[in-house]
Specification:
Chain lengths: 109, 113
């Protein structure tokens, strides 16, 4: 079956670094997406990885290892506004997104 | 401004009533999607459409219906056959269905009393 696993909740301190892990099992693989979702709002796109390695975009970076079925989202210099849920989604061979339940990130001062 | 609109933001209905949620996009995207989001669960695909006048069932289509008469519009009807309709409903669109990100509307929170 298809499955995306990520931690339910994480806590970090303002100004610190946090890594949110995601493991995936999909029927075929056409990439791994990360989205940010603030409570009660729409998800917004953060990153897309289809090749192994690290993609950096400002304070956010995303890593993919296809052989391990593993990705992580790295957030640096955490700000209070980064408090949100982070959704991991794998794209299968039919180009459908399989979504994880999301990781709620709590930032403390 | 280009984007996706969903209305209303909050919707209340009595049990047994059908209700239609609207989704409009002016991004000129071909593909449109409807998802349901429940607490503690990932987004689940209800229906999707890759082109006008064509749509496909997702993982949880039972109790829902859609239409795609115009490229810009993809309304979702929650019928009385849906056993547990209270949820947050998200509409999304993307360029042709391959490896492109999906853009989401603001969502409609439906509560059935």
């Amino acid at each position: 079956g298809q499955n995306i696993d990520q931690p339910t909740e994480m806590t970090a301190t303002e100004g610190a670094i946090v890594q949110i892990n995601c493991t995936y099992q999909t029927s075929g693989f056409n990439g791994l997406f990360w989205y940010q979702q603030h409570a009660g709002e729409a998800p917004t796109f953060l990153s897309y990885n289809v090749l192994d390695g690290l993609e950096e975009k400002g304070r956010f970076s995303s890593f993919l290892s296809r052989s391990k079925g593993y990705s992580y989202l790295l957030l640096k210099e955490l700000q209070m506004k980064d408090s949100a849920s982070y959704l991991c989604a794998g794209m299968d061979s039919n180009y459908q997104l399989i979504w994880g339940a999301g990781t709620k990130l709590i930032i403390k001062p | 401004d280009g984007g996706i609109t969903q209305s209303p933001k909050y919707l209340f209905r009595k049990e047994g009533q059908n209700v239609t949620l609207s989704c409009e996009q002016n991004l000129n995207h071909d593909a449109m999607y409807w998802y349901r989001q429940d607490p503690g669960q990932g987004l689940r695909l209800i229906y999707y459409s890759q082109i006008v006048n064509d749509f496909q069932k997702g993982d949880i289509a039972e109790g829902y219906s859609v239409s795609r008469e115009k490229k810009e519009s993809f309304p979702l009807t929650v019928t009385s056959a849906q056993k547990n309709p209270t949820a947050f409903y998200l509409c999304a669109s993307s360029p042709p269905i391959d490896m492109n990100e999906q853009f989401f509307g603001p969502g409609t929170r439906l509560t059935v009393l």
